[in-house]
Design goal:
globular; 7-stranded mixed sheet; 31% strand; single chain; alpha/beta; 4-stranded antiparallel sheet
Length: 252
């Protein structure tokens, strides 16, 4: 499954769920608030900007936002909300695409770095972030913690979410550090609609090493956007990496 095949016109049409899920005010509000603080009055670059779930309210807060996005249907959906002047977008892969200018903040939200399916691509993403950042700039990543502790011996699947009308199931390939998320959505009938997305999961320690290879230092790690402590039981994290004061944009 290629990313451009997954994030097609149908996915773009179904992606936004205003007021619920990842668009719920209690989810989106703290995300935007914290990113605005991290930007520190400078410009922000969002890798995999999608339909603008975060970028649109962040720009409305007065933060100049530029995006990188591989999927043209997702960009088209974004364009129904804001124009190119308000939020410019570079079409391309977040591991390699180059946006004009220098930024105080580059960010990747909602597990999106895991859409890159090899370690080499994920390291390249860190280096691409460093390339765009001013000295002392931040690279912020929101990512889930792999739930391998839930896998009994011989089992390859974990139900990670269940509610009326929806079941989320992950299948793991621990040899290659891959996981496929299966999303089953049910209507009132007997049929379910299935969508699948492949990922390469990353442990926090591995993520930190990727940061070091790209010239970053870990500044902070919390369990969520509100600043809760990250513990051994945390299911996700918000990790903030910072370039050195003498960092030169374009050198990574």
């Amino acid at each position: 499954m290629r990313q451009d095949e997954i994030w097609n016109a149908d996915a773009a049409r179904r992606y936004d769920t205003p007021g619920t899920g990842m668009f719920a005010p209690e989810v989106l509000g703290p995300t935007v608030e914290r990113l605005a603080e991290f930007a520190g009055g400078g410009g922000a670059l969002e890798f995999a900007i999608g339909t603008g779930r975060v970028a649109v309210p962040l720009a409305a807060r007065g933060v100049p936002v530029t995006g990188v996005e591989l999927s043209q249907p997702m960009i088209d959906k974004l364009r129904s909300k804001v124009d190119e002047v308000t939020i410019p977008v570079v079409v391309g892969d977040m591991a390699t695409a180059v946006a004009p200018g220098t930024y105080t903040l580059v960010y990747l939200v909602y597990n999106t770095i895991a859409n890159l399916l090899t370690q080499a691509e994920q390291v390249a993403c860190f280096r691409n972030a460093a390339r765009h950042l001013a000295p002392g700039g931040r690279f912020v990543i929101e990512l889930w913690v792999p739930e391998l502790r839930k896998l009994p011996p011989g089992q390859q699947a974990v139900v990670w979410h269940s509610e009326p009308g929806y079941i989320g199931l992950d299948t793991y390939d621990v040899l290659h550090q891959h996981v496929v998320s299966h999303h089953f959505r049910f209507d009132d009938g007997t049929q379910a609609r299935l969508t699948r997305t492949p990922h390469r999961y990353i442990w926090p320690a591995e993520l930190d090493l990727m940061g070091q290879l790209a010239g970053f230092e870990l500044e902070s790690r919390h369990a969520d956007w509100t600043g809760s402590d990250f513990t051994a039981e945390s299911r996700s994290h918000v990790s903030v990496y910072r370039t050195a004061p003498g960092h030169q944009p374009g050198t990574r």
